[in-house]
Specification:
The protein is built from one helix and no strands. The chain is mainly alpha-helical and 44 residues long. It has one domain. The longest helix has 41 residues. Keywords: Membrane, Plasmid, Transmembrane, Transmembrane helix.
Length: 44
């Protein structure tokens, strides 16, 4: 019983961490792309 609970906890924690990391990476990439695009558009 305790093994399954700990396994579920480990799986949920790893999924949460991976989700946070993927979300942070995608957000950072989109911010970089939007920043570079705005920089290029403002450049004469």
């Amino acid at each position: 019983m305790s093994g399954s609970v700990s396994g579920f906890f480990d799986d949920s924690m790893s999924g949460l961490v991976s989700g946070l990391v993927s979300g942070f990476v995608s957000g950072l990439a989109s911010a970089l792309v939007s920043g570079s695009v705005s920089g290029f558009s403002t450049t004469p």
